[in-house]
């Protein structure tokens, strides 16, 4: 193996650049070359590919977004398009590929491996919704952004004795909501993995009011419903001075936290090690602070499980 390609695909996440840097520098350290592929699978097909070196990976570890850009390219689900992608890789003398992205990106990487071209996936998404890894690259940064926002909303909630319903990202996963809810001492946390009764939420707010606390924060995962819809459902149950706030894409941006940088760096280095061993079709994860890999096929058969112990902690403290 001489040349490793690297691309970011699907939704961007803080820490992707740290992974790009790690793959580039590790490749160089091992006497290999790294090639950046812009715009995910779309750029692969278009031949938007360039040689990277330690200098092109300079000063990117702290930058949010992805210097390799990202793009949706549904056509890559078709086999002739995948084979064309391999042709492009070969044209540039690339022998193996690291793909940073989510579930969809992993499908593309597995298809390439099945066609004889080794590809390895790194979990890059703020949603923390990938199986077999405790954390995805970008989750911690998004969590910090959500927590900072909740802290700020709490200030104004207290001043005006209002209740904020704060909708956070996570797609169908409640991880950002749960962690941000605990970190931000929310009065309640609502996640898609657990049913809730709007009456119970109202009862909690009422009992807090009876104790003299007239402001509050409810953290709502986007996978449940929108903040506006939730506030509408809650409104008939009492005068809570409700305000709905959707944090939105601000959670996807910003400089990655130290945790995400270190995670992405460790995973990037590990991916190069595995490719050098001739492996492919694997998804890298971290479990109990140990890097692991799993077959992508097994991963597609599994579902991410949120940390229900943490959910219980959130609920035990919210009354
Ligand atoms: P994520 O990787 O974050 O889940 P997407 O689902 O948008 O994001 O997938 C990113 C890209 O991966 C898609 O734009 C497409 O190019 C590729 N992809 C998605 N699904 C498949 C599939 N079933 N087979 C091959 N490639 C796929």
From TrEMBL:
Positions that bind substrate: 125-127, 162, 169-171, 222, 243, 249-252
Positions of the catalytic residues: 127 (proton acceptor)
Residues annotated for Mg(2+) binding in this entry: 103
Domain Phosphofructokinase, residue spans: 3-275
Cofactor (UniProt): Mg(2+)
Pathway this chain belongs to: Carbohydrate degradation; glycolysis; D-glyceraldehyde 3-phosphate and glycerone phosphate from D-glucose: step 3/4
Notes on how activity is controlled: Allosterically activated by ADP and other diphosphonucleosides, and allosterically inhibited by phosphoenolpyruvate.
Main subcellular location of this protein, as a coarse class: cytoplasm
Reactions performed catalytically: beta-D-fructose 6-phosphate + ATP = beta-D-fructose 1,6-bisphosphate + ADP + H(+)
Pfam families, A to Z: PFK
GO MF annotations, alphabetized: 6-phosphofructokinase activity
Keyword Transcription regulation: no
Entry keywords, A to Z: Allosteric enzyme, ATP-binding, Cytoplasm, Glycolysis, Kinase, Magnesium, Metal-binding, Nucleotide-binding, Transferase
EC numbers: 2.7.1.11
Entries under CDD domains matching the protein: Bacterial_PFK (cd00763)
InterPro entries: ATP_PFK, ATP_PFK_prok-type, PFKA_ATP_prok, Phosphofructokinase_CS, Phosphofructokinase_dom, PKF_sf
Binding site for ADP: 21-25, 154, 211
Residues the entry annotates as binding ATP: 11, 72-73, 102-105
Protein's cellular compartments: Cytoplasm
Assembly, per entry: Homotetramer.
NCBIfam families cross-referenced by the UniProt entry: PFKA_ATP, PRK03202.1
Family, per entry: Belongs to the phosphofructokinase type A (PFKA) family. ATP-dependent PFK group I subfamily. Prokaryotic clade 'B1' sub-subfamily.
Function summary: Catalyzes the phosphorylation of D-fructose 6-phosphate to fructose 1,6-bisphosphate by ATP, the first committing step of glycolysis.
Protein's name according to its UniProt entry: ATP-dependent 6-phosphofructokinase
Taxonomic source organism: Lacticaseibacillus pabuli
């Amino acid at each position: 193996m001489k040349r490793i390609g690297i691309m970011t695909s699907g939704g961007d996440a803080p820490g992707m650049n740290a992974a790009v840097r790690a793959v580039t520098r590790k490749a160089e350290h091992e006497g290999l070359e790294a090639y950046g592929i812009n715009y995910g699978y779309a750029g692969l097909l278009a031949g938007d590919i360039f040689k990277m070196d330690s200098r092109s990976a300079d000063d990117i570890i702290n930058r949010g977004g992805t210097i390799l850009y990202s793009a949706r390219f549904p056509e890559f689900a078709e086999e002739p398009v995948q084979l064309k992608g391999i042709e492009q890789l070969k044209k540039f003398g690339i022998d193996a590929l690291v793909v940073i992205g989510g579930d969809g990106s992993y499908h593309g990487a597995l298809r390439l491996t099945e066609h004889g071209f080794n590809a390895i996936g790194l979990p890059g998404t703020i949603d923390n919704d990938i199986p077999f890894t405790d954390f995805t690259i970008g989750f911690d940064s998004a969590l910090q952004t959500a927590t900072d926002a909740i802290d700020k909303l709490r200030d104004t909630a207290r001043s005006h004795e209002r209740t904020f319903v704060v909708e956070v990202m996570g797609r169908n996963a409640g991880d950002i909501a749960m962690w941000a809810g605990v970190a931000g001492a929310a009065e309640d946390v609502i996640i898609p993995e657990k049913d809730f009764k709007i009456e119970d939420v109202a009862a909690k707010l009422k009992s807090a009011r009876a104790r003299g606390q007239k402001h509050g924060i409810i953290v709502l995962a986007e996978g449940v419903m929108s903040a506006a819809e939730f506030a509408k459902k809650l409104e008939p149950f009492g005068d809570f001075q409700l305000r709905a706030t959707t944090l939105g894409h601000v959670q996807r941006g910003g400089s990655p936290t130290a945790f995400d940088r270190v995670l992405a760096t460790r995973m990037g280095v590990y991916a190069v090690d595995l490719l050098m061993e001739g492996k492919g079709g694997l998804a890298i994860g971290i479990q109990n602070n140990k890097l692991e890999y799993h077959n992508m096929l097994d991963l597609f058969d599994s579902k991410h499980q949120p940390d229900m112990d943490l959910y219980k902690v959130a609920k035990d403290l919210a009354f």
